[in-house]
Amino acid sequence: MAGVPRRTALAVLGAGAVGLTGCGTPLDPREDAGGIALTVAVNAISGGKNSEEAEWISEWVIPRFVRAQRARGVDVRVDFAPSGLDDEQYKTKLALDLKARAAPDVMALDGIWLGEFAEAEYIRPLRDVVGGDFAEWPGWRQIDRRVQALARFEGRLYGIPAGTDARLLFYHKPLFRRAGLPEEWKPRSWAEILDAARRLKRLPGVVPLQINAGTPMGEATTMQGVLPLLTGAGGAVAKGDRWYGDTPALRAVLDFYRRVYRGGLGDPKLQQEAKGRDKSFAAFADGRLGILAEGDYFWRDVVAPRTGTSPMPHRDREVGYTLFPARAPGEALGGRDHVSLSGGGVHVLNPHTRHPQQAFELLTALHSAAALRAQLDGTAKITERDDVNAAVLDRDPMLRFAADDAMAVTVFRPPLAAYTEVSSALQEATAQVVSGTAPKRAAAAYGRRLQEVLGGSDRIVD
Questions:
Q1: What are the residues facing 347 on neighbouring strands?
Q2: In sequence order, which ranges of 290-396 are alpha helices (DSSP H)?
Q3: Phi/psi class of residue 98: alpha, beta or left (left: φ > 0; alpha: ψ in -120 to 50)?
Q4: How far is it, in rounded angstroms, from Cα 269 to Cα 108?
Q5: Could you tell me which residues are beta bridge partners of residue 460?
Q6: What pLDDT digit, counting tens, does each position of 382-416 carry?
Q7: What is the DSSP string of 217-234?
Q8: Domains of the chain, with CATH numbers?
């Protein structure tokens, strides 16, 4: 949809796609026998994608919610609508059902879709759906306002954030020892990252640095690479509802990519492969990659000693972690020395739900402290709630570091409708540099592409 303003991107969805079935339509046949019928949908399915989340909702959240409602004299039935789709397919199905006023009562969105759905008027602020009482939910006091930003568009809350995360630099301590680098590494600038990578380059068979680039890496390029670097250079991708184009900060970011991939410090071929990110994980776990820019997901789900996809039995002593430094001390956005990037999902309400109060109570049930602890099931993860984090993160020093140190300097992606296409344009700019285009030319091309995405220059910051 190049050249089509993102405000209309969802509105032009065709009617040929199939919507979610069994959803909370305005005339729900399940209510013929009396009572209240609700549906909750996330992109998860038992035995498939995000299986544990699907089972948590269907086997823990829903039964307890139904019992609690009936104890109050409310006869309610809740169905779980599973999906195991590609994220874009799931997004399209939700948009079509919302357009037809036939969507689930409660549903999960990726945080970067929020502005797009809001501008298409497929979702509405909580106050419009539920009324002012939504602000009385005690759980709001446990969700930091920075994390609430995940569910906020144009100053209004549309839902409840569903967890968050942080971006860090991970490094392989045994390789650092072999290269004569400190095991407690705390780089203070981009120059120090590059210096460490040059030392690692002396080790045979070792790729010094992986910072995601190119379009095959998708949003991982933007989140794990471009945006932390851009923030570290004092820049931003957007200001209010306007976007930055070819700026000095962006040129500095692209020059960093040039130094990595044209300077022999990273593997340019890996950035062109569909499975390149997974291959970088395996290389790190095998001791063939020295420094990796990633989210805390890497620690929790990739190199976890027993359950990871690329497990490291001695992860806790072999994997180091540190904050992204600014380009130079004090040069990050806001005059900071370090930066991080955070993302996450959002649970929202169908604005056409027949039962807004019960739908909101189901929404908050998904975000109760007890529900989140049950979802974690003894594991550790940064949740949206401070009280849950306080109870579970001390068992994992890395996640405690991410929650305390990285979240203190984090920023979030702008919840604007054009973000997904802007992100793709940033990915294209890094791909050009990796393939040999000069950073200035790639930045200029990004500026032109931004005008195409936005339909002109009136939304670009001068």
A1: 108, 160
A2: 297, 315-318, 356-365, 369-376, 386-392
A3: alpha
A4: 35
A5: 243
A6: 999 999 999 999 989 999 999 999 999 999 999 88
A7: TTHHHIIIIIHHHHHHTT
A8: 6-164+345-403 (3.40.190.10), 167-341+417-454 (3.40.190.10)
Instruction: With cut-offs at 50, 70 and 90, classify the pLDDT of residue 88.
Output: confident
Q: Name the residue with tokens 């195409």.
A: 452
Alpha carbons 208 and 199: distance in angstroms, whole number: 8
Give tens-digit pLDDT for 270-320. 999 989 999 999 999 999 999 999 999 999 999 999 999 999 999 999 999
Q: How far apart are CA 259 and CA 266, in angstroms?
A: 9
| Whole-Å CA distances, 5 to 154, 213, 298, 428, 458 | 18, 25, 34, 19, 12
Pair 50, 43: CB distance under 8 Å: yes
> Could you give the 3-state DSSP secondary structure of residue 357?
helix
448-461 residues labelled b (16+ CB within 10 A) or e (exposed) = ebbbebbeeeebbe
Q: Which residue has the tokens 């190049």?
A: 2
Give the residue ranges of DSSP H helices in 72-123: 87-99, 114-119
Contact assessment for residue 179 and residue 202, using Cβ atoms and an 8 Å cutoff: yes
Long-range CB contacts (within 8 A, 24+) of 237-240: 237/413, 237/414, 237/422, 237/426, 238/414, 238/416, 238/419, 238/422, 239/461
Distances (CA, A) of 176 to 140, 185, 203, 260, 319: 43, 9, 10, 18, 10
Read out DSSP for 247-294?
Answer: -HHHHHHHHHHHHHHTTTSS-GGGGGSTTHHHHHHHHHHTT-EEEEEE
